[in-house]
Amino acid sequence: MREPSYLGAVRDSYDAVAADYVEIVKTPDQLDPVSRAMLAAFAELVRTAGLGPVADLGCGPGRVTAHLAGLGLTAFGVDVSPRMIELARHAFPGLRFEVGSMTALEIGDEELGGVLAYFSIHHTPPEVLPAVFSEFHRTLAPGGCLMLGTHAGDGERWRPARAYGGHEVSYVWYLLPPDRIAQLLRDAGFVITARLALEPVGGGKRPSVALLAHKPATGGPSSSP
Question: What pLDDT, in 10s, does the model give residues 24-81?
Fold first, then answer.
């Protein structure tokens, strides 16, 4: 099957910016207290369920993967950028990191106790998100937990010329309203249990949203308020 062109753009762009990305992007301990609390809540839910490991999808240089491991989870990372995976393996040699795409995960059915997609879906075209969320659902065990964090917007789309230290990039940003993201998750079979809207503060450029959800223990789609 031919790889979608957007994946190549994301891979090449993040390979190019990887070294500066590590220097510029906040580490988990530098996040605001509310964001750290959401990650801690996700970790507690996964530990309590005891269903399997957590896949950090779009893990970048592996810092959030390592943060989850520090919270007591068996966690591994997946990223489309080989350079990001190289940096993650170097920084955290005791953890597992793999090159891969969220659209076709090399993970067995119902193998995971948790899925984390932390600011890693915003380069995915909206029409592809149903397939991505279906992969999340497929790989989670019944009762497994999902946490998704992403930038929010109202159908915005743009292609920045440079990023992270002035490197040329060719990826596209796609921003959806939180309600639309939540509905796509429900359509994929998830039950949403919490939603947190974060407004830009301290020089932030855009709002974001974090959602906690789970795959019903009985399987199949389910509605939530």
Answer: 999 999 998 999 999 999 999 999 999 999 999 999 999 999 999 999 999 999 999 9
* Residue 158, CA distances (Å) to 123, 131, 172, 202 in order: 10, 22, 6, 23
pTM here?
A: 0.93
Q: What is the pLDDT of residues 185-220, one digit of tens each?
A: 999 999 999 999 988 765 567 899 999 999 999 744
DSSP H or E stretch at residue 183: helix 178-187
d(CA 97, CA 91): 11
Tokens 């509605």 belong to 223
Sign of CA dihedral 72, 76, 81, 82: positive
Buried b or exposed e, range 99-120, using 16+ CB within 10 angstroms: ebbbbebebeebbbbbbbbbeb
* DSSP H/E element including 41: helix 33-49
Judge contact between 193 and 42, C-beta under 8 A.
no
